[in-house]
Amino acid sequence: MRVTEKIVYDAMRFSVMENRDRLFAIQQRIAANRKLASPSDDPRGSEKASQLHSTRAELEQFRRNIRFGKTSLEISDTALQGVEDLLVRAKELAVQFSNGEFSDRDRKLAAEEVGEIRRQVVGYANTKNGSEYVFSGFLGDTPAYSAAGVWQGDAGAREVRIGQSERIVTNETGADIFGSAAAAGGVPAGGLMKDLQDFQAALENNDLDGVRNALTTMDAGMQAVLAGRALAGTRIRRMEVTDSAIGNMLVAIDNQLSGIEDLDIAEMATELAKQEAVLQAAVQVAGRIGSLTVLDAVKR
User: Fold this and answer.
1) Where are the alpha helices (H) located in 126-207, listed in sequence order?
2) Architecture of the structural domain at 74-256
3) Residue 63: is it exposed, middle or buried by C-beta count within 10 angstroms (0-12/13-18/19+)?
4) Whole-angstrom Cα distance, residue 71 to residue 111?
């Protein structure tokens, strides 16, 4: 095969351009501070990195779900703590006014305080997380209780995913803590809301038996609140443990991604200098061969 000037020229051009492209690829990696500027740099590594990024995104979503659910339960727990404090005072009033030493007027004044306690309990029962009422079940846009203490929510359990096959309930139903889901005549049908209303009425009517009964009903209400707080605490701890485990997994994934994607600057600096030298040499060789070809043509 006869080596023509075109073959020589094409070979020189190809060598220069190939080395220039290699230099450009190294410069791209350094500029991006990434080992893999494109999937073609390392197909297997790129595929593994893509899988790791997908897993990482899913874990981050689980963490966002946990933060939302944990916030909702913490808000619920804070509200229940407020109710607990109110019931301590209600129990004190029941103990204080269950004997005959106080006048009708005294009990009427105490009834006003119980009425205020009941209104505050309704306020806590209608606590919101953002725009949603936390104790209303699926009816998050509806207050759990009316001003009269009548239940208005449903028994819906809101769940979020915190793992591949793991979900957790992020709300507590008001009916389980504050009162029955049924109501009649515009008044609470049962539970703490009705017990507070009955206690207030007993004080207003100077009904000692009714006041003494409040000793038992306030204890029952306290137990329901404490059970709600215990459940919230259990779920919060479960989410904290899961969040910690996810954090450890994310660290492991980041370490793997670092090994695949992160650039060794010292190594790349050496590679850059080496490739610059190779390109320069290719250009010089091409220039010399080009000159010889021209001289050869002149001699002819």
Assistant:
1) 174-177, 192-204
2) Up-down Bundle (1.20)
3) middle
4) 35
Angstrom distance (rounded) from CA 131 to CA 111:
33
- pLDDT exceeds cutoff 70 at 112: yes
Taking only Cα atoms into account, the Rg of the chain, rounded to an integer number of angstroms, comes to: 38
Tokens of 284: 């010089």
- Looking at the chain, the number of H-run helices and the number of E-run strands are 7, 6
Residue 118 · residue 149 · CB < 8 Å: yes
Domain regions of the chain by residue span: 5-53+262-299, 74-256
Q: Residues with Cβ < 8 Å from 87, sequence gap 6 or more? A: 192, 218, 221, 222, 225
Residue type, 275: Q
Token pair of 104, please? 């009708």
Which of left, alpha, beta for 127 (phi over 0: left; psi -120 to 50: alpha)? beta
Banded pLDDT at 118 (limits 50, 70, 90): very high
**Contact at 8 Å (CB) between 62 and 163?**
yes
> Using CA atoms, how far apart are residues 82 and 236, in angstroms rounded to an integer?
18
**CA neighbours within 13 Å on the CB side: how many for 6?**
1
- What phi and psi values does residue 28 have, to the nearest 5 degrees? -60, -45
Q: How many CB atoms lie within 10 A of CB 296?
A: 10
Report pLDDT for 299: 47
Instruction: Please tell me the total number of residues recorded for the chain in this structure.
Output: 300
- Partner residues linked to 129 by β-bridges: 132
Residue pair 117/124 in contact by the 8 Å Cβ criterion: no
8 Å CB contact between 154 and 182: no
Write out pLDDT tens, residues 7-47.
555 555 555 566 565 555 655 565 554 655 555 556 676 78
